[in-house]
Amino acid sequence: MATFVLPNSDPAITVSLTPDLSREQLLSFTAFKIWVETLQNSLRLQRLNSHAFQSAPYILRSIDVQAVDFFGGGKRLGFVKLTAEVSNDHGEKLPGSVLLRGGSVAMMLILQPDDILVSSEVDKYAILALQPRIPAGSLSFPELPAGMLDDSGTFSGAAAKEIAEETGLEVQASELINMTELALSHVDNEEKLQNGVYPSPGGCDEFIPIFLWQRRIPRRQLKDWQGKLTGLRSEGEKITLKLTRLEELWKSGGRDGKTLAAWALYEGLRKDGKI
Question: In angstroms, rounded to a whole number, what is the distance separating the alpha carbons of residues 211 and 247?
C-alpha cells in the first residue's frame, strides 16, 4: 500500500492509497481538494475561545483511501471512498467514513401559460425526470432534473439532453436564479461550506446548488406537453419527463431531497420577495 504525507499539513497527515490510485490523481481530484480545504478550515476555527471544541480540539491525523471508481473507461476519477481519523488528545473520535463525489446542480424548471399575469402563481408546472437510480433500488425514480453547468454555461447531462429532445428547451446560465445562493447570502459561513444543499452530510461530500428557471409559453404548447410529458416510458427508454402542477410538486417528488429542498427554497424566497 502506497502512502504519502499530505502537502502543507502540520502536523503531518499520512494518506494511504489503493493500488489503482496515484498520489497525483487524488491530489488533482476536485472533490478531494474541496473536502480537505473545508475540513482543515473548520478545524482551524477551534482555536477561537468561543469554539465548543477549543479546550480539546480535534485533529485530522490520517486519511485511508479504501476504494475508487473511475469513469470514462478508467480515465476520470469519479468516486473515492475513504476514512479520515479525526480525534483529540483525549482519544475521542469523530465519525470519518466519507464518500467523495463532489458537487452537481439541480434545476427547478417551471412553465406557465403566457396568458397569465406574470405576478401570478396560477397554472405553473414543474418538470420532473424519471430515471433508474440503482443506489435507491429504483428503475423509475422521480426527481428534479440534475446535471452540471458545462464550460459554456449551459445545463448539461442526461436530464438536460432529454429536456432538449422532448421540448426543444435549452437552459442557459444567464437565465438561471441560484436559489441556494440567495437563501444563504446572509447566513454565517465561517466554515466556508459550499453554497449548496448537502443531501447526506453524514456520509457524503456531495453539495447541490439549486437553480430556478422559469419560462412562459403559449397555453396550447403547454397542453401539448402535458399530453406528451406524462412520465410513461417507451420500451427500453431510460429517462423520461413528467409535468406536474407546482402546488403538487412536494408530493410528486416527495422521495427526492433535491425536489423538497427546491420547493422550500422557492416558497421561502418568494415570501421574502427575492424571486
Answer: 18
